[in-house]
Design a protein that fits this description.
Blueprint (H helix, E strand, L loop, with lengths): L1 H9 L4 H29 L10 E8 L4 E2 L3 E11 L9 E7 L21 E9 L12 H7 L5 E4 L6 E4 L5 H19 L6 H9 L7 H10 L2 H4 L3 H20 L2 H6 L2 H19 L4 H18 L6 H15 L7 H17 L8 H15 L1 H8 L1 E3 L2 H26 L2 H22 L5 E3 L5 H14 L10 H4 L2 H5 L10 E5 L8 E4 L4 E4 L4 E3 L2 E2 H12 L5 E6 L4 H4 L2 H7 L2 E6 L6 H5 L4 E2 L5 E4 L2 E7 L2 H6 L9 E6 L2 E5 L5 H11 L7 E3 L11 H7 L3 E4 L12 H9 L3 E4 H4 L2 E6 L2 E6 H4 L10 H6 L6
Parallel strand pairs: 4-6, 12-15, 15-16, 16-17, 21-22, 22-23, 23-24
Antiparallel strand pairs: 1-3, 1-5, 2-3, 3-4, 5-6, 5-7, 8-9, 10-11, 10-25, 11-12, 13-14, 18-19, 19-20, 20-21, 25-26
Helix pairs in contact: 1-2, 4-5, 5-16, 6-17, 8-10, 8-11, 10-11, 11-12, 12-13, 13-14, 14-16, 15-18, 16-17, 21-23
C-alpha cells in the first residue's frame, strides 16, 4: 500500500488521490491493529463451564483496593490456578466482604488486611464480565475490557485463604504499594476530615475516596476535572521540578561544565511527570500530559522548535497506540479537547493580552468548546463553571495541590491539615453556586451530527479577532439545543424496562407525560441504580419532570433507589405500597397508597392499578403480596407490571378480574421466582411477551427453569434483562414494537451468554 501511494503521488494532478489513499491505508492499519489487540484480550477469557464454581488461585493484588460499606474491591493478577482443569484469565476483579456480611457466602474476613502488591492464595467464585446495558448508560463491560479485567467474582470462605508474600518486587506492584501507603497515611492523618477523600484523590488519583454528595457539587460547578488528577497538576509539578533542578545545577560551575543545566533540568522534569503520573494511576489525562512533556522536552533537547499541535498529536498517537480502548473514555475527549482549545485560542495571535484577560479567554474557550462533547456524553453542562473555575483553579492548583504533595510524599500531617482547611474554605462559594437552580443545563441526548456542527461553530466563534462573522458560530449551536426528539403520537405509550440487574425499574412515557414504576436497587450509600441508570436515561430522553412515581413495595430491589430519583428530578405525585414508618413515606407526606381501581388517562393512554385490593390489604401480611400491580392500555394493546406478587395474590387477581387481565406484555412477577407465575395467572394474562428482570447469574437462581418453561408452553416470547439489556416496548394503534438494547447496539465486548447457558447455571433459591 505505501508503494502504491508513493507511485500515485508522482503522477500529475494525483496529490488529492494520494492523500485519500494514504488516509485509507492509515484507517485500515488502525482498524486492523485495534482488532488484533481486541482479539488478544478477548482470548484471555473465563470458559462458561467454570462460571460459578469454586476455584483456587494464587496471584497478586494488582491495584489499590477500593473500600465500600460492604467490603472492598480489588484487581488481582492470577499467577497460578491450583484447581485441576480450571482455566482463569490473568486479570480478574474480586470482592472481599467485610466481617459479618451475609451476601453469597463470601469470605467474612477483615479486608483491612489486604494491601496492594501482596501475593495471596484465594478460593474464588467467578463469572464472565457482565454489566447492565441501557440506552445512554455506563458500559461496565467496556470499562473492564479496557483495564484487562476478564472475569469478576468474590473471595469465598476458606481456611486456606492466606497471604503468601507481603510484597512482590515488580515495578507495577511497587508503584501500587506506594499509592497504597500514601493513601493509608493520609487517611490516618486526616481521620474524620470531610474532604480527606478529595485530598487523597489529588495525591494519588483515588477518586473512589470521594463521597457522591461532594461529586455532585463538583459536577454542578464544573470543577470535577480539578479533583481528578488533571494535566495541569502534572504539568505544574513537572515544571516545578524542572525549575528547581535548573536552579540547583546552575549554582555549580563544575556541574554546568559537565552537562548543560537546561538538559539536566529536562531529565528531572520528565522524570517528575512520569513519577507523578504513575502515582496517580496513569489515567488518560495524566498520560496525555506526560507524553506532551516528553515531546516538548525532546524538541528542547535537540534545540528544535515544534508547534503545540504536533506535541498534542504526538501524545494522542501514543495514547491510542498503547491503549486503543481509550477513545471510549470521556476523559479522552475532554482532556484532549480542552488542551486543543487552549492551543487554539492562545496560539498565532498578533498580540498577547494581559494574564488575567488571557486566563479569562482560555476559560471561555474551554467552557464553550466542550459544550458539544459534554452534551453527547452526559447531556448536561455547568453554567456556573467559568465562575467556579476562576475561583477553584488558582486555589487548588497553586495552594492545595502543592501542600498535599508535600504532606503526602514527606509524610507530614501539618501541610495536609492546612490543605484541607484551604479546600474547605474554597468549598463555601462552590456549594452556594452548586445550589443555584440554574447551575446546570440539562437536556435530551443530541444527535451526533448536531454536536459536530456545534464543534465547528465553536471553532468559528473562538477564532481570532478580525475573523469575519464570528457571531455566526453561535448559530451552529442551535440544532444541538433545539432539535429535540419527536414526541410520541397521541394514543401511544413507550415502556422501557430498564436493566438494573436483580431489580425493577420501568419508565412509561406518553406524548406529554412520564411515569416511573419502581426505581431499582440501592447497593450502598454511594452507589444506586437511580443515579447511575434511571436519571441518566430520563435526562437523555428529555424527561425533565416525572408526573408520577409508583413504588410497588419496600424491598430494596424495587424501592432502594427511589430516594435518589426524588433527589434528582422533580416528581409530581407519589404512590406506593409502603409501611407508614418507611423513610420514603415520611419524606413524601403527600404519598398516596396503591389501591385497586385507581385509574387515570394520559394522552389517550389508560393506566389502571389492579392490586392491592381491599381484601388483599386486610388479609395479606407479606409485602410482596401487597405490592402495586399496574396495567397500561394503548389502542387496545395492554401491558402489566406485576412487581413481586406471589401465587396467593395472583389467585385473588384471577378470581376478581378474570379475562380483563389479558395483556400483550407482562413484566413477570417476582423475577421468575417459583413462588409466582402460577398456571392460572399465566393463562389469564396470556402474554405474547414475558419479560424477566433479573441480574446475571443472580444468587437466587431467577428465573427458575420450570417457570421459564411454563411461559414457553403458553406460547409467550421470552425476554430477559440479563440477555437483552433494557427492553423498550411501544404500544399503539400500529401494534407493538420491541427493541432490545444489546441487539440494537451490539458490541464485541458485551456478554454473549445464551438463555440455555444462563438457565442451566441457575442455582437454588426461592
Amino acid at each position: 500500500m505505501p508503494a502504491v501511494v508513493a507511485g500515485l503521488a508522482l503522477l500529475p494532478h494525483s496529490r488529492l488521490l494520494a492523500w485519500i489513499m494514504l488516509l485509507a491505508a492509515a484507517f485500515a492499519a488502525g482498524y486492523s491493529y485495534a482488532g488484533w489487540r481486541a482479539a488478544l484480550r478477548l482470548a484471555d477469557t473465563l470458559p462458561p463451564a467454570w462460571e460459578g464454581r469454586d476455584i483456587q488461585v494464587v496471584g497478586v493484588v494488582a491495584g489499590l483496593p477500593q473500600v465500600s460499606e460492604r467490603g472492598l474491591r480489588f484487581a488481582f493478577d492470577v499467577e497460578q490456578v491450583l484447581t485441576p482443569g480450571a482455566q482463569v484469565p490473568h486479570g480478574i476483579q474480586l470482592f472481599w466482604f467485610r466481617r459479618g456480611e451475609e451476601a453469597e457466602e463470601g469470605a467474612h474476613l477483615d479486608p483491612a488486611r489486604l494491601r496492594a502488591g501482596e501475593r495471596w492464595q484465594f478460593r474464588v467464585r467467578l463469572k464472565r464480565p457482565h454489566g447492565t446495558a441501557n440506552p445512554y448508560g455506563f458500559d461496565y463491560e467496556y470499562y473492564l475490557l479496557e483495564r484487562g479485567i476478564r472475569a469478576t467474582g468474590y473471595v469465598r470462605k476458606d481456611p486456606e485463604n492466606f497471604r503468601i508474600d507481603s510484597l512482590v518486587i515488580r515495578p507495577a506492584y511497587l508503584v501500587e504499594r506506594a499509592r497504597d501507603h500514601i493513601a493509608r497515611q493520609m487517611r490516618e492523618a486526616l481521620a474524620g476530615a470531610p474532604y480527606a477523600g478529595v485530598l487523597i484523590a489529588l495525591a494519588i488519583g483515588d477518586q473512589g475516596s470521594i463521597p457522591q454528595d461532594q461529586w455532585r457539587v463538583f459536577t454542578r460547578t464544573g470543577i470535577n476535572h480539578l479533583v481528578a488528577i488533571s494535566g495541569l497538576h502534572v504539568t505544574l509539578f513537572s515544571g516545578l521540578v524542572f525549575a528547581l533542578v535548573q536552579w540547583g545545577w546552575r549554582r555549580s560551575a563544575r556541574l554546568t561544565q559537565l552537562w548543560p543545566a537546561k538538559k539536566v533540568a529536562l531529565i528531572g522534569g520528565v522524570t517528575a511527570a512520569f513519577a507523578y503520573a504513575l502515582l496517580t494511576g496513569f489515567a488518560v489525562p495524566a498520560q496525555r500530559t506526560f507524553y506532551m512533556v516528553v515531546a516538548a522536552a525532546l524538541a528542547v533537547w535537540r534545540d528544535r522548535y515544534t508547534s503545540p499541535s504536533r506535541v498534542l498529536a504526538f501524545a494522542l498517537a501514543v495514547v491510542v497506540l498503547l491503549d486503543p480502548w481509550a477513545i471510549k473514555a470521556a476523559g479522552f475527549w475532554l482532556s484532549f479537547g480542552a488542551v486543543a482549545l487552549i492551543f487554539y485560542v492562545a496560539s498565532h495571535r498578533l498580540a498577547r493580552p494581559g494574564r488575567l484577560l488571557e486566563a479569562a479567554q482560555v476559560q471561555w474557550a474551554v467552557t464553550v468548546g466542550l459544550i458539544p462533547p459534554l452534551m453527547v456524553l452526559f447531556q448536561q453542562t455547568s453554567l456556573v463553571s467559568p465562575l467556579a473555575n476562576a475561583w477553584a483553579i488558582p486555589l487548588v492548583s497553586f495552594l492545595v495541590v502543592p501542600l498535599v504533595l508535600i504532606g503526602a510524599f514527606l509524610g507530614l500531617a501539618a501541610p495536609l491539615h492546612l490543605a484541607h482547611a484551604l479546600f474547605a474554605l474554597g468549598m463555601l462559594p462552590l456549594a452556594w453556586l452548586a445550589a443555584l437552580p440554574a447551575a446546570v443545563w440539562q437536556q435530551h441526548a443530541p444527535p451526533l451530527w448536531t454536536a459536530l456542527v456545534a464543534s465547528l461553530g465553536a471553532a468559528w466563534l473562538l477564532a481570532p479577532r478580525g475573523f469575519p462573522g464570528r457571531w455566526a458560530g453561535a448559530c451552529a449551536f442551535l440544532p444541538l439545543f433545539l432539535l429535540a426528539p419527536p414526541p410520541l403520537p397521541t394514543g401511544v405509550v413507550e415502556a422501557t424496562v430498564l436493566d438494573v440487574g436483580q431489580g425493577l425499574a420501568v419508565v412509561l412515557r406518553t406524548r406529554e407525560h412520564a411515569l416511573l414504576f419502581d426505581a431499582g436497587p440501592r447497593f450502598d450509600s454511594d452507589v444506586d441504580s437511580g443515579s447511575r441508570i434511571v436519571l441518566p436515561y430520563l435526562r437523555a430522553m428529555g424527561v425533565r419532570r416525572l408526573d408520577g412515581l409508583v413504588v410497588s413495595h419496600a424491598d430494596n430491589d424495587h424501592a432502594g433507589s427511589a430516594g435518589a430519583v426524588l433527589d434528582g428530578v422533580p416528581v409530581g405525585w407519589f404512590m406506593a405500597s409502603l409501611p407508614a414508618e418507611d423513610p420514603l413515606r415520611l419524606r413524601r407526606t403527600d404519598a398516596q397508597p396503591c389501591r385497586a381501581g385507581t385509574q387515570w388517562r394520559w394522552d389517550g393512554v389508560d393506566f389502571r392499578l389492579l392490586h392491592p385490593s381491599a381484601q388483599a390489604l386486610a388479609t395479606y401480611r407479606k409485602a410482596n403480596d401487597r405490592g402495586c400491580v399496574l396495567q397500561v392500555e394503548a389502542a387496545g394493546r395492554r401491558l402489566i407490571i406485576a412487581a413481586d406478587i406471589e401465587a396467593r395474590a395472583e389467585r385473588e387477581l384471577v378470581s376478581r378480574l378474570g379475562r380483563t387481565l389479558a395483556s400483550d406484555v407482562l413484566v413477570v412477577p417476582h423475577h421468575g421466582s417459583r413462588t409466582s407465575s402460577s398456571v392460572e395467572f399465566i393463562a389469564s394474562v396470556a402474554p405474547d411477551w414475558a419479560v424477566f428482570t433479573v441480574g446475571y447469574r443472580n444468587r437466587f437462581g431467577h428465573p427458575k427453569a420450570e417457570v421459564v418453561e411454563r411461559y414457553r408452553l403458553f406460547g409467550s416470547r421470552l425476554l430477559r434483562s440479563d440477555e437483552s439489556g433494557a427492553v423498550i416496548f411501544r404500544l399503539g394503534p400500529s401494534g407493538i414494537d420491541v427493541a432490545e438494547e444489546r441487539k440494537v447496539h451490539p458490541r464485541y465486548w458485551r456478554s454473549g451468554a445464551t438463555e440455555t447457558e444462563l438457565i442451566s447455571s441457575s442455582g437454588t433459591g426461592s
